[in-house]
Amino acid sequence: MTKLDFAVNQRRFSFGDGAAEIDSSLLEFLRKEGFTGCKQVCGEGGCGACTAVLSFWDPETNSTKHQSVATCLLPLPFVHHMHITTIEGLSKLSDGELHPVSEAFYEMGASQCGFCT
């Protein structure tokens, strides 16, 4: 039996063969699970509204790598053994403080992608 294991904002997910979720994009899965910070706007990966960060172990460098991705284009099985961080995952650190990226967004009046402006 094939399994799909990954995490979103420190929350683990696991699915087996035949799970309906396996046929979705990462964005569709995120929205269904209540991670609404990533939005579907252009559906082509060009606007940035669906951007998230993938973190994964790189055995060649023996370190964790981080890569931004357009979740609307990424098939969910691609994230096997990876960790996804959405804008919600940046909102609060374990000590209750804002993440530095969220703090900068707040202080500078930024938006996630600017599409609505």
Unreliable spans: none
Radius of gyration equals 15 Å
Q: How much β-strand is present in the residues?
A: 25-35%
The side-by-side strand order for the widest beta sheet comes to 2-1-5-3-4
Largest sheet, in brief, is: 5 strands, mixed
Number of strands: 5
Distance between the termini: 47 Å
The SS-based structural class is alpha+beta
Total of helices? 2
Order of helices and strands: EEHEEEH
Percentage of residues in helical conformation: 10-25%
Which whole number gives the mean pLDDT? 84
Shape: globular
Task: Kindly describe this structure.
This protein is of the alpha+beta class and 117 residues long. It is built from 2 helices and 5 strands. It has helices spanning 26-32, 100-108; strands at 3-8, 11-16, 51-58, 63-70, 83-85. A 5-stranded mixed β-sheet has the order 2-1-5-3-4, with no helix packed on it. Strand 3 (51-58) and strand 4 form a beta hairpin. The protein is globular, with a radius of gyration of 15 Å. The protein starts with a strand and ends in a 9-residue tail after the last helix. The model has no long low-confidence stretch (mean pLDDT 84).
